[in-house]
Structure formats: C-alpha cells, structure tokens
Task: structure prediction
Amino acid sequence: MKVLFLEIDTERTWAVASMGPAFLAAWLRKHGHAASGIRVPPDEDAATFINRVQEIQPDLIGISLTTRQWLRARDLIAALRDTVEVPVIAGGLHATFSPEAVLESPGFDFVCLGEGEEALLELVTRLENGQPTDDIRNIQVRGGMRPTLRPPLASLDDLPFLARDLLDEQYGVVHIATQRGCPFPCTYCAARQYHDLYESDNYGRRRSVSSVMDELEYIRSTGDLNYVIFLDDTFTIFPTWVKEFCDAHTKRFQTPFSVHARVDTVSRDMLKMLAQAGCRHIVYGVESGSLRVRREVMQRPITNERMVETFKWTRDEGIIVTANYMLGLPGESREDLEQTLELHQQLKPHDFGYFVFYPYPGTRLFQVCRDAGYLPDNYLELPANHRQSILNLPDLSQEDIAEFYDRFTALREETQLGRQSAALTPEQEQQLVDEVRQCAATG
Result:
C-alpha cells in the first residue's frame, strides 16, 4: 500500500519536518509498504497542493498535527476531499487530544491516539485487505467511539531508524530522538500528558546507547554527519545513561551536537563530560523569572540561584547556552514579566528565545484556562502562534503581553548586534535587525 505523509507549514518553513511521520514511514517500509512525504510550503495554494497529491496517487494520506498547523491543515484537507477520495488519518499532539474536533472536519476519516506505529500498520493492512477498520486500538473512526489503547512499544530499540528522506535535513545536520515521554509534571507541556493518556507511570522509555550509536554510524556510512541535534525534551534526565553516551560518543564520533536540558538535571561534572564528548550547545527552559509562577503555575520549582549557577557552569565549559522564556501565563502579572527580564540579565545566555503562552489541548494549563473562562468562545478558530495571546487574563492584558514581547524583541536585537566581533556597516546592522523582527513577527 502507498502512504503519503503531509508536512503542513504555516507562516514559515521550519528547519526540519515532523519526526512522527519519519518514524511511521520507516515502520511501514519495514513491513513491506511504500511511504513518502511532501512538504506544503506557506505560500502554496490549495490547487497546487491537490495537483501534487494527485500525481503521487496515494492509497492513504497521513498527517501529523500540532495545534499550530491545525487551521491550515483543516482547510487543505477539506479542499482535497472535494477533489480526491483518498482516506486521511491524522495523528500527533493536536489529533490525540482533540480527536472529535478533527473528525468533525471534512476530509478526516481516522485519528490515531498516542503512538502510531503498530496502529497505523494494522489500519493499512485492513484497508489493503478490505477489512473493517472500526475496532482498531488507538484508531478513532469518524462517527465512532473513542478506541481502547494498545500498550506503548516495549522497547524503542525495536524501531527502525528514521526515514530521513522525509526530514529535509541539509549540510549533514541531523536530528535524533533517544526517548519518548517525560517524567516532569510541567503544566504547559503535553509531553507529560501521554502518561495520563495511557494511565501509566511507565510511558517514558529510552533507547539504548548502542542503538543511538548504531544510528549515528548508519548516517555516517550513508551520507554526511556534521552536527547532531538531539530533540529529546530533556536529554540529561538519567545521569548514568548520559555518562554511557558520552563515553561511547567520545570513542566513536566526537561529532559536535546540541541538546535540551533542565538546569536541575545537570551537574558541573556532567557538563564537563558533555563538553568533552562534543556538546557545543545546550538549550535550557527557564520559562519565567518569577519563582512564584514557576512553582504555582508551571510546577517547575527551580530556584533562580540554581539557574544562574548552571548557566555559569555551562559557559565555563565553552558550551553555547540558550535560554527560553514564556510570556502571558495564567496567574502572571507585569511584575512577574519584569522579573523574567531581570533574571535574563543575571543568566547571561549567548542567545534566547521568547514565546507567548498558548494553551495547547491536552495540557493542564489548557484545562485551567477553560475552567477559569480565560479562553474566548472562538478560540478554536484563532491561529495558534507564540507572538500574540488569545487569553483574557484578569491580571495581564493582551496589550501588556504585546508590550513585553516587543521589549524582548528589542533586547534580542541588542544581543545579536553585540555578538558581532567586527564592525558592521549600517546596511548590515539593518539586515540583522530585520531578521530578528521577521522572526518575531512569525512567532
């Protein structure tokens, strides 16, 4: 059977496509099916998109959805269904936590809840053999009841390596995931909600170090391997695993790489070990400079002192450090946002990202916002981006949030200009500023 995966870009094309379809395509190919993918750039109209799909003539279309992609994907799939009678299945975070809304939209026939490898293979097999599809675990059918869930894959080492032709990787910069699930209870993140979805404390799994090394070896033997971006939410969760990884990577590769981490999961010794193994960049989620907001709203009880200390340790090891911040959370005030700016000055990161909070379905803060009446009635029709708040908060107006977003943008302009070692011409300075503002405008 021929399965086509769609990557729907919204306001800009991201550096790498969604990882989910690359896992699923590899799994389907392993079991004898054909799988391919196309990317739908932001400026492509529906007619061009439909023509491209018709040229491929798939038997099934799969699409992994974030809430940010949902509105454009909904409109494209509805237009496609007017012309092409091909079944469509949606998966990913948005489909998993808003399956009914997805299935109520024209063109969507199935939704996959949670992990999709085994469920999608069963659906493809049944479609190919003309068998009923209304009782597949993890698969919800249009007009059908919520399905039961099969247990998650017992071992991630059983997964074939990613189908990298779906990822749009360039220049030998590759992306790898070593784990699924996250043990931390952060209220703004849907990763933890998979534990609740499966009603299990054991959803989190990690590949063996040998599996990761084998994938890196495979990439090196089949193409360029110049830099690795590990996409795990928190690469540094298990110190024993990290040490084993660093030892193996140092012996076999020493390819430069970057990771995401929490400041409370690293030590000075771990950072030294990571640096020696080739780590060149760490992204830390700071989120807020207000300890009250982190504790009471986010469930991230990390002190500012620990953050400042960890950022210093990271810089001391020669690792580039990036901080990520959030603005406009429920329960937040202008004073809290001022504290975020103040903490930023103490952390002294090489770079930083800043994002206006959006209440994603499946997160605990989404439920908080809905129960408190912070969501507007038409929230499902509003674009999900990270530059503009959709919430009606009692202590922080949308104008307040926009003001602080602009202040962060101005601060990033200063940071980017200050990083230049050589004097820039006025034209070069303006180009750099324009790039920062363009990035801010797309959220």
User: Anything to note?
Assistant: The chain has two domains: 2-141, 169-442.
